[in-house]
Design a protein that fits this description.
Elements (H helix, E strand, L loop, with lengths): L1 E7 L5 H9 L3 H9 L3 E7 L4 E7 L3 H9 L2 H10 L26
Antiparallel strand pairs: 1-3, 2-3
């Protein structure tokens, strides 16, 4: 199953966001893989919009698995100040899947 989502990074934090993703902790990468995340990509627009894409058998199940992993709580705490959020949610809680309306295959 393919999942796409949008997030919004604070414009003044975009450079830090790029840097942190150039140096993702090995434990975080392992946790994502163990939770079932595959082919995970993030794209950053000039206005701070993040477009995320991930393949997983069950996105909600994989997201729940990540929430229970201790390294994820630490990562979310570190990353939260970089995001625009109107409701105080952590970045992983803001990842709401978009509706897929077309796929070539």
């Amino acid at each position: 199953m393919r999942t796409c989502f949008l997030l919004k990074v604070r414009p003044e934090k975009m450079d830090e966001y790029r840097l942190r993703h150039a140096q993702v902790w090995p434990e975080m990468l392992d946790a994502l893989r163990q939770a079932g995340w595959r082919n995970y990509s993030l794209f950053l627009e000039p206005d701070g919009t993040v477009i995320g894409y991930v393949e997983a058998d069950d996105f909600e199940k994989c997201r729940t698995a990540m929430k229970s992993h201790p390294i994820n709580a630490h990562w979310q705490t570190e990353m939260a100040p970089l995001f625009e959020s109107s409701n105080g949610s952590s970045p992983d809680e803001l990842m709401q899947p978009l509706e897929e309306i077309f796929h070539l295959d």
